[in-house]
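Deliverable D4.2, example record:
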Amino acid sequence: MIRICETLCNEGYKVSLIGVQFSNSPKLIDKNFNQQRIKCFIKKGFGFYAEYNVKLFFTLLFKRADLFCAIDLDTIMPVFFSGKLKNKSLVYDAHEYFSQQKEIITRPKVYKIWHYIERHFVPNFKNGYTVCYSISKAFEDLYKIKLEVITNATSNNNLNNSLPKKEKLILYQGAVNEARGLEFLIPAMKNVDGILHIYGDGNFMGQLKTIIHNHCLEDKVILKGKVSPTELHEITTQYYIGLNLVENIGLNQYYSLANKFFDYMHAGIPQVSMNFPEYKRINDQFEIAILIDNLDKNEITNAINTLLTDKAKYNNLVQNCAEAKLLYNWENESKKLIQFYKNIFEQ
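Output generated by the structure prediction step:
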């Protein structure tokens, strides 16, 4: 979101980004756009979403703006109602296939609510964009709306990729959440001659620590905690292999195109990723990864070991990363974003 807001501000738009204030939210950083956080007394569950939606609605109702953009399904109702009352343009930004998250589709009552919201509100947004072609196609088939595709590719910020990689170091970066394949990755590390560093935090951290302990891998799997995005970009270049594992439960996971996929690409490090549509599409253009069909621990182990031992293949993937990032970068994607909003305001 910071990247999107900065891009629009640099084009001359006045942007306000509104979100939630959690107890562990990092401090706001000075940016060229307005930032506001809404405090909620209820911290989780239906009560949280209800409180946040009501507060967001009244916040938007008294906000001067020419256009309202809903970020994912959990903000779509207050954005829709406030925008309609004020007769303003509406945009839907589908960062993910929200109703198809593992945490939702595995809970029938919760899924029923979010699917109802999706079916009744998404078709009312004639302007929108999403992060990949698979989600765009799904929404077109279901709701007859066309979402533009603006991938969340990494900025081509000339990272120093010439430094030698530390051959035994393997990196997992990003949210430590359910459906990220971590419970399969840890036992797979038993037969890998390398050290895994995990950067990030999330709702699976407690279980992750237990799994590491149960497999006696405390010396082989190191939890590094959260660092700033800028720090993480520099850190990533030092690793030999990146990991992007996703559990195939729900279309949100199957259609995923994770930020880390691009982060590894731009850092010049080959990765183990999933043989899912979006990763395959890019890997067919530029082979930058070993794609695995499932999260079987032996398949994970074999893929990592191939990158550790096959120098010729590894070096070829490194070269392909350098070519791929010339096409897949935020500088190219930002042009699509700017044109998208320009088209709306010229209507």
